[in-house]
Amino acid sequence: MKDYFVGVDLGGTNVEVCLLSDSGEVVGRGAAPTEVALGPVSLVDRVAAICQEMLASSSIGVSEVRAFCIGSPGPISVSEGKIIKAGNLPGFDNFRLRGELSARLGVPGLLENDANVACWGEFWRGAGRGTTDMVMFTLGTGIGGGMVVAGELVHGSEDNGAELGHMIIVPKGRKCSCGQCGCLEAYASASHTAKRAMEALQAGRSSVLEGVLQRSGTITSKDVFECAVAGDELANEVVDGTAAALAQACVSMRHITEPQTVVLAGGMINAGDMLTSRVKKFYNEMMWNLKSETMEICLAQLGADAGVIGAAGLALHHYQNDRLGAVGE
Amino acid sequence: MKDYFVGVDLGGTNVEVCLLSDSGEVVGRGAAPTEVALGPVSLVDRVAAICQEMLASSSIGVSEVRAFCIGSPGPISVSEGKIIKAGNLPGFDNFRLRGELSARLGVPGLLENDANVACWGEFWRGAGRGTTDMVMFTLGTGIGGGMVVAGELVHGSEDNGAELGHMIIVPKGRKCSCGQCGCLEAYASASHTAKRAMEALQAGRSSVLEGVLQRSGTITSKDVFECAVAGDELANEVVDGTAAALAQACVSMRHITEPQTVVLAGGMINAGDMLTSRVKKFYNEMMWNLKSETMEICLAQLGADAGVIGAAGLALHHYQNDRLGAVGE
């Protein structure tokens, strides 16, 4: 009899589930629409049904499943296993998702923040494999974060740690949607990268981005990166601004938790090597040279799978370290 | 028979030693000159002699001592228990201090960075008592740091973590002695607080600090704080600059590891409430208000004792968590 673990990645649109063996092999996958309107109990039903299908199709007995982990939008309470309030999961507020799924599956489990399970996925099986200390920046509309310190996820005292997009990198700097000024997110997120380009056009700078704006009515970070590749001067300045902001945050994080690796994730990493090479260039210019150790700055490797694989891996990790509670808790 | 623990705080001038009971009571104290020129083996002799005296005078048997911890200037290797290179301990480079003292005392031990043991002292018995997550800024000539995350010290992947003075808070900002630009230390350390006042005078600003400079040939951060209390406009601007830089770092750290408490330590905290009240004011202005949780910003409570008490407390902590190696390792 082997040990198996269930990973669940809960999003506002779909819920992804996987089954992992204790050797780290993904032996089953499944998914279903989240159907938020049907409420959380219905979701638990659907996840349990997917688990049964996965077990049946891989001839694994239910008694071989040891634990599960759900990655959920938040804020959540890790200790209580409940969603506190998730913007795109109305009706799930204060629902004790961990306990309900645990009672249904008959095994103990844990509830984690979705950014944290994705970070754990990259740490365990992706770009951070082999490290003990890792930092992840997820570059989307906003900037999310994740941190592993000495082989463990950082939660913070109220489960709101690793909000790395809201480090202040410029005193009295650009206004962020969070209300602060000068946040990393207000410079280097996909939306603020596009916004800085728009502001430069409005200030009268000329660029091929003007044509993009006229044709499509808006500018995206993808447009900015494409025009930068094509040699547009303004687009290159904007990309450099994004990369320099990320590099500054990388220097600070290197001094704070001293990760071996910083992983860049999220939609904006479609820009690929153009992004990482510039972040590295600015990092090397900004970072002290008192020590010879280097830090890796690289792209995430698991894409959208990081969450579901990280969740299953985290269930395995907690099982191995004897940190799970009782069934139904 | 009770359990006792030895704490050692190794400085370039003196070495302080204390004996701690398992209930956390300090039952013995001792000190000796470090006498760096006599080399590390001689130092081990002296520390062992102090331990014997402490045990004898408190009628505690050597068999009741369970572990020790030495706080040392660094960089050090925690895993190997050796000093790598300490500026004010020439001749101690690569000396396996942990193993030598362990063999002499006949109990296992650990070697820690001096900033970390002081941080642990404040966490365990001082201003951070009762928290799980704490950050400490030590404001002296430079700015040192310490971090406790989920009840454990943060070391970083190469034991150089928590170098909080070298977070970059201003892009292309003031030059720091480390070689970087815009470090927290280059704004808020005692030396840079004095330096910013000097620069303002040189730029032609008028202030009662001119008189101080003429009388004593220099300006210290103490002078700046005193003149600020007396109402001098420039001195108040400089103090505000120091407080705003610290507040910005506090906001970032709150988002990164989400401590319940930030502790300010080091010589500059003689400025007292003037410093903390301004840091808090700027922190409240800069910090988002998305969540209702608050963070404490306060002064260290143990003064120069933080190191030796923290070292002994850390020995106790590692003993209780069964994390010590073998004798002589």
First-to-last CA distance of chain A: 25 Å
CATH fold description of the largest domain in chain A: Nucleotidyltransferase, domain 5
User: Which stretches of chain A are poorly predicted, pLDDT < 50 over at least 5 residues?
Assistant: none
Mean pLDDT of chain A: 96
CATH class of the largest domain in chain A: Alpha Beta
CATH superfamily of the largest domain in chain A: ATPase, nucleotide binding domain
Query: How big a fraction of the residues of chain A is strand?
Result: 15-25%
- Give the class of chain A from helix and strand content and strand pairing: alpha/beta
Q: How would a textbook summarize the main sheet of chain A?
A: 5 strands, mixed
Q: Please tell me the CATH architecture of the largest domain in chain A by its name.
A: 2-Layer Sandwich
Approximate shape of chain A: globular
Count of discrete structural domains of chain A: 2
**Helical content class of chain A:** 25-40%
Contiguous helical run count of chain A:
10
What kind of oligomer do you see? homodimer
H/E topology pattern of chain A: EEEHEEEHEHEEEHHHHHEHEH
**How do the strands of the widest beta sheet of chain A line up side by side?**
3-2-1-4-7
> Largest interface, by Cβ-Cβ below 8 angstroms: which chains and how many residues each?
A-B, 48 and 48 residues
Radius of gyration of chain A equals 21 Å
**Strand segment tally of chain A:** 12
Describe how the helices and strands are arranged:
Two copies of one chain form a homodimer.
Chain A: E1 4-10, E2 14-21, E3 26-33, H1 40-57, E4 65-72, E5 76-77, E6 82-83, H2 97-105, E7 109-113, H3 114-125, E8 134-139, E9 143-149, E10 152-153, H4 185-188, H5 190-202, H6 209-216, H7 221-229, H8 233-256, E11 261-265, H9 273-286, E12 296-299, H10 306-320
Parallel strand pairs in A: 1-4, 4-7, 8-11, 11-12
Antiparallel strand pairs in A: 1-2, 2-3, 5-6, 8-9, 9-10
